[in-house]
Target: TetR family transcriptional regulator
Amino acid sequence: MPSTRRTARQTDLLERLVVLLTAEGFASFTLDELTERLRCSKTTLYQLAGSKQELVREAVKHYFREAAGAIEKQVADTSAPADRVVVYLNAVAERLRPLSRRFLDDMAEFEPAREVYEANTRLAAARIRQLIADGVAAGAFRDVHAAFVGEVVAATMQEIQRGEVAARTGLSDAEAYAELASLIVHAVSP
Model:
């Protein structure tokens, strides 16, 4: 079983795996194909995770962990409450932009990966609730019910995540997040 602390080589391999999977999806790859594409052995892959399913889950977790860190850094560098909401949702959109439709579809169909995406969606919705509550407390937003706005955001984020917004509107996930940012800020502004 892989250790929680990775070597630089393992981290590099995981990052290359993330790049490959987010560009091309993962359902159709075999471990042999992954080893060939990544130019490594199965043993090396098994040092990251014990099976293809666990490997995919680790790659998805790594992607979202890295994305969350980058998003929070952007928010930390922003002070105005409305800007923080826009920066947060636009940063989410930017992090989703490079994800191929095949990867998103594979994630939706593969429960361990979908669980990671859903957990990150819940965390993002909670973060929006907090940003709205902070803006209301600072007097920058109308006195809206932050938890309700957060629930609306969460529901929309879940529809984006499941591909429903893309199917009904033609918007990519990233474009939908950008539209959501604009909608929320305009809805809560005085």
About this structure: The chain has one domain: 56-188. The chain is about 75% helix and 0% strand. The domain at 56-188 is CATH 1.10.357.10 (Tetracycline Repressor; domain 2). Residues 96 and 133 are 25 Å apart (CA to CA).
